[in-house]
Every structure is written in structure tokens, then in C-alpha cells.
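Researcher: We're teaching a course module on how sequence relates to structure. For the next exercise, students receive a sequence and then see the predicted structure as C-alpha cells, so they can try to spot secondary structure elements on their own. Here is the exercise chain.
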Amino acid sequence: MSYLDATPAEIATASGIEGLGDEDAQRGFLAHFNRWDISDWLSGSRVPSSRDGAIPGYFRFLVLTALVSATETGAGETHNFRIRLGELLGVDSPFNSVSGVNALWRALAGWCERKRAAGEPYRRIDLPSPGNANLIGIAVRIAFPSWEDRSALTQILRAVSPDVRRSPDRLAQELTRSRYAHELPQAVASALHDFNAAVRLRRRMLVGHRFWRLVQSIDSRLSGEEERGSRVRWRLEVRFEGYELDLARLKLFRGRGVMDLVSSWEGALQELEAMPRETLPKGLADALDHGVLLLSEAPGMTWVLDEESPPEDTFALLLARQGSIATKWPLRTAWRPLEGPWLASGRLDGSALSALRRSLGLAPVGEARLVDLTFEKGVKTDHSTWLGRPGFLPQIFASSTSTLVVQPVEGAEGVLSVAGTAPSWDLVTEAPLSGRWRVRAVESGSETEKVICFEPTARERWEFRSLDDRFEPEHDVSTVGVSLWKPCSPQVGLPSIRPELDNALEAIYAGPAKGWSEADLIRLLLPVMPHKHFVWDFLRGLAEAAWLDPFVLKSWRARLWRLRPPHLREIAPKSVVVAGALGAAARWRLGDVARAAGGQLTFLPGVSEWAISLPLIEGVSAADLARELQWPITDPERPQLAAAPNCWPVEPRSGQGRELAGVWSFDSGLFVSPDDRATTNLVRLERLVRARGDDRDIYRINGRGETLLASSRTSAILEAYRRSTRLLFDWQDGKFRRLARSGHLPLEIARALVAHASQASGPVLQSDGSWTYAYPADAEAATWVARTLGSAVSVKGGSHPLDFLDLIVARRRNGGRLVWGERLQREFLS
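Model: And here is the predicted structure for the students to work with:
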């Protein structure tokens, strides 16, 4: 830090109080002082302790010394520091007790250096020379801007157009003209000279430069003086989600200044198009009228449209309405359908769109923007702190001409390397990281430095808040009741969870308290998945193991994934399986409690290395664990279901007002274009979408029975296979295995199977890179599933594959009593 902006405007911003005026901010700040404390600290009568505290309590007195030079209110028009300080404090004479000001600033610089050496995230302070002012010179020279500096530059910028003052290159060219030489105060001229030299060297990491920060602050204030509504800044962010990545999730930000943008709307593309044009920013309204949204690539798998021209060095993506000029333009891209008439292009070189921009009446490609050293993606666990797990570290972004250096600070543990080239780098590690690391971006001899902290585990989640009524849980079947279901004897537990799986679970566990939006969760997991579509089966496995709960937003097609609270299932005396979401910290506490009670914690492997491992505690009763952990006890249950199709939920929505988006292909196991001739079958499964994207998809099954509508993708696929007498799952060797590329058992059935077997379901990766999906099921469970789902599943080749003796043997193997009565026969024969 080479300067301190202590203007009332900056103090108002730092307060975080919305709508706080400059004069009110100054009065509030000064109200925290009394003249006797000020006299003691600034005179040198009181000095900082020899032992560094957590924070330098005297820092506010140094901000006060900078405010003396920075404010234009309440300090008179004199340049005399002592008189201005006396005026601020309301005394009639100069405040002369300032002999310790320079020493106090030097003490702060030393404090920061010691904290930096210990790895704490503080900046280095580069103190200016005090010149001839041996007592107060540092305070006078480190304050930038002064009240005169800010006032003079404000008058100059008021006459400069917003387009110029918001462009680093154009503003530097404008203000270095000789006509401004006599108007710029010396401190501003010096800052401008340094900024202009950096711009001409093509340095782009100048967001924090003292001149540019001053310009942005003044621009925000001038924007408020300009005509209402005409100068509101805005930004539209777009992300893609859904299994087919055909759902564009949009978020609109507005504000007076670039630093004041706040989210004002969120929804689907068709909802945005339906909004009255007069309620939208003009540039966005014009883009919708043209039917072309030209988006620039931004960090975090996000695409952005705003009032500025896209930079020359970024990639672009087009959202275009069918029949618009963009869809007819000769572009080398494959268009994919979105909602209604909208299409999305592939990733395009921004420079290739210049002619299209001119045809749309847009400004040419813009200049490269100023950037800062930033951290994106990853999982943030606290301020400047990220989860330090392999595969889930943040990316670093800087300028395209910078180089990057990452160094451990004292106390850091692990090995961290950097991969990639400017302007973005991946952080890479093979084992969990902890501690602080210093990141330096070097550009044309200038350095920008930040400290990032990693922690290997997330804090244990003690509270699981309920959702509001905007969300509803997903259901695949309608139950008529539940019955207790005696669990099987578990497998032999393992001492730990596979590290790759553990890293993924910890990253999910460390997410937002309200839950993960589907788009953000997919973005998080995709880099560590063996295939981009594998992630959907992985998430399904977490839901079926009762680790996550999927919820659907009622107002539009959006899904939220939430951690499920932990609970205990006693499968035998002093043998307890734990279900629900457990991070590493919760598992450690579980292990400590088990060992203290004389028990042992192991982990029951799932059906594959990508299925989660369920914690098993042996030697301790469920009641004792519940008392210590404050986790509830639940009994393994089986839902009571009618046979399909009578078990499917009654769908209240109709197919009216929806468009046909896809037809199921039994050959490919996916939804394909409705025009694909391969979709001709006696049974036809269709995917219907709302053109506005304001409701969830509906699935329609025609053929071999009455037309059926369902909002559950899982149920619809199963019913289509059942009607067509095609097998979706085959039971062999104690497992159901999927025979198509996608499809699952109903969530309620799957969770019962997992609880019954004490083994998680999940995707099974095969040696050729393909994968299937499997569920644990003993003979009794297989019979129940076959009886419910009919010809969509096969158990040894028949709808009732087990003879009566097989079922009795299965019951005895699981500890059940031998029953020959009508109840067992009715269960088998129904």
C-alpha cells in the first residue's frame, strides 16, 4: 500500500452502510474520537505495545491523519495540517500535539511486515518520504487524494463523456493533453503519469491503481448526478444447466457504478424476452429486439453481456432467435437448441464477430479491459480461504502478459504447483493443502500480490435450514404407506474412503448453506469426472444414498441440491449405519465418539469405486450414539407401492402450452431430435418444455395404453420401457445393472434398496471408458422391484423369477422367521 484514500466518500463506502452520505460518514467517524486520546497517540505519549496484537488498535488514528488532508468539509481551506486538524476537532487553535505521527506510521509498516512474515494476509506498506516535514510528512504525502485533488479532478471529469472516463486508454490520452497540464493538481498529475505509462506498456492489472480507483469513485458520483435512468450500469450473466445443457440461467445486475452492481432479476431466457422493454436497460432491450445476445466469456463457466463492447482478447458465445441475422451469418459453429425459438452457438473467437457487430449496429470490438489478480471457481470456505482438496482448488486470473509465482508462507503444508498460461492458471496438488500461500502476478516489472489460505476440511454442518415454499422435493412414485424392512447383514467395512471420492464429497459438503444450484454443482464436479455425462449418475448416487436431496424451483426450471442431515440406522444390536451428509470433520467426531464408547468406525463400500461408502459403527448402540451426537435414529423402511403404472404420481399439469423438445431413442438411450426417424416405435416417450422456461419439463408416453403424463424423468423412462417390454435393468449376482445409457430406479425404491443392503448404489465405470449403473438387491428385494416395475426389469428372465422356496431361503439368510402363512404367499403372488 503506497497511499490511503481517506476521503469521506471512501469512508462511507468502507462503512458498508447503504445510502450513507459523505458528511454523515465523516461526522460518524469523528464521533469515535476524543481530543485527549488523539493527543496521546499523535504526540507520541502513547506508543504501540512491543507485542503485536491481532489488529493495530491505533490504525484509526492514522486514518484520521489522512482524513485531515483528504476532506473538504469542516477543515477550512488552509493547507496547514495542524490548523485543519484543530478545525476538525472543533478547537479554536491549531492542534500541535503531532510529534509522533511519522513514528506511528512507521510502527504500522513494521507491524504489517511482521504479520506478512507470519503468513497473514496483509499488504506491505511503502511509506513516502516525509521530506522536510519530519513530524507529519508521511501522513500528508500518503493521503491520496486530498480534498483539493478530488475536487479538481471531479470538475475536469464532469466535462468528459462517460464513455471516455470509463475507458482507461481513452481517458489517459485525453488527460495527458497539454490543455489539462495547468488544471491537474501535482499529486493527480503524478498518479496520471504513472497510470499512463502502465497503460502504454499494455499492463492490464491496474484495477487497484490509485489513479483509476479515484476515477471510478468520481464516476460513480457523477453517474448519480446525470439524468435519471440514462446512466444506470448493468450486466447480464448467463450459465447453462440441465442434463442436455439446454437451460440458460440468467441473472441481471444493475447499479450506478461498476462497483455498485447488485442482482435485480433472475430467471429463464423466455421470461426475460417477455419482460416489457421499457423496464430493461436499452442495450439489452435492443439485443432482444434483434434476437441476438452477444456474450463474452468470463471466469467460472459464465457468459456476460453488458453495455461495454467485448474486449479484443476474449471468446464469445451467441444466443440467437431462430431466423435472426446471427443464425444466417456464415459462422463456423454448431447451433444447439435452447428454450422455444432460441439457439446457442459454440465458443467463438471474439475478433471473428466484427462484421456481425456492425450489421447489428453495435460498437466495434472494444479495447482490452483492466483486470485484477483474482481467484475463481474452487470452494470458498471463508474470507480469502478456500478448500484445499485436489481437483477443487481455485483458478487464478490475471492479465494476458503477466507471469505468476506462488510461494508457501511459514506454516503452510503441502505441495502446490501452477499449470497453464496467462491469463488463467490452475492450481494443482496431489494431497490436501493447508495454510497461507503468497501469489504474485508480475507484469512489466510491476507486481500485484495477494495471499490465499487453504484448509483441508470444511467446518462441520450443525444446522440444516428448511427451504421456503418456492421449492418442492422431487418424487418418482406415489406411496400408499411404508413398512419396516429388516436390513441385510453388512459387508466387511474398510478403514477409510477412497481419496478421490473423499475430495469430491468434501467439496460438496463445503458448499452454500442453502444448497448448490445445479449449474454451480455441475461446474464444480465436471473437471474430476471421467465423462461430462457421468456427473449426472454420480449425483443420482448421492441422492439415492440419502447424502443429497434434490429440490425443484416451482417458478422455473431450476434444481437445488441440498445436504441431507445425518441420521442413524441400527441394522443389528450395536451395529449402526450412518446415512446423510458427513464431511471429514463430522466423520472425525463420529469416530471419536465411537472409540470413546468402545466401538469401531469403518466404511462400507458401495457397488463401485464411484458409489459412496457408508459409515458403520460396531460395538455401540444407536441410542448411545444418538445421545452423544444429537443425530436422530430412523428405521429402515420400504415404501408400499402399487404395481406400475398405478404407482406413478398423478401429474396435475397438461401438455398444453408446451413444445416438443425431444423423443426418446431406445437404441441410444437418450432423448434425440423429434425429427430423428430412429425414434419411430410403438411406444413413444416425448419431452415437452415450456417455451418461456417458467416450469419444469413434462414427459408424455403414448402407445400400448392410455396416454401418461409425468414430470419425473425417471418414472417416464421406466414406464416407456415397461410398455415396450424392453429391459432397462437386469438382476444378476445380487445387483440390478442398467442396460441403457441412462435411466434409474425411482428414488424412493432406490433409497429403500440402499438402506436394506447397507450398500450405496451408483455408477460403475468399465475398462473401456463406458459405464453403467448398479443397485444392490438380494433375492427378496429383487422380487419386490420386479413385481412393482414389471417388464422394465428382469430377474432371471421372468416377471416372477424366484420360486417360493427361493424367497423363503432369502428370508432365512437375512435373519427373518420362517413363515408359511397366507401373508407370505400373498406377498409373493401379488
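Model: If you want an answer key for the exercise: The two ends are 78 Å apart (CA to CA). Residues 203 and 444 are 7 Å apart (CA to CA).
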